[in-house]
Amino acid sequence: xxxxxxxxxxxxxxxxxxxxxxxxxxxxxxxxxxxxxxxxxxxxxxxxxxxxxxxxxxxxxxxxxxxxxxxxxxxxxxxxxxxxxxxxxxxxxxxxxxxxxxxxxxxxxxxxxxxxxxxxxxxxxxxxxxxxxxxxxxxxxxxxxxxxxxxxxxxxxxxxxxxxxxxxxxxxxxxxxxxxxxxxxxxx
Length: 188
Fold this sequence. Notes:
Elements lengths: L1 H56 L10 E4 L3 E6 L8 E7 L14 E7 L5 E14 L5 E2 L13 E9 L10 E8 L6
Antiparallel strand pairs: 1-2, 2-3, 3-4, 4-5, 5-6, 5-7, 7-8
């Protein structure tokens, strides 16, 4: 009888150890997938951020006419000589709608678009939030209501953004928050 109790006890303990090892394996796999998706989100976000920063710092470069053409909370259109060839180009950044990314499982993601001159829109990132705020030479925020008549008063631009992954991990979508105040040198 004592041997039967030893066999049953060791079987239960062995089964418990196997379950612990399987659970550990599942947790490691889940953690690895989460880190991988976080890294992918960060890499895509970094490329988008570099693009936006590069061109916003070049607002007004070699431009003699109006430098900022339109501005609101979700879009900004401006001019500059972005490739230093002596000709003015127009660039527009704007946020699409949730319906533009209806094919992804993330219910809150929107594409961030870039349009050079009159070309086709190019999606450069997936965001939950991408918001522009504008400031005058004294650092006072210019309200969106009065912005249309004050485009030439814009001296710095604040960008608040939250880049997201289109794919979930454990029902959560990895995010990367980025906030930057940009003061283009060439704005008159």
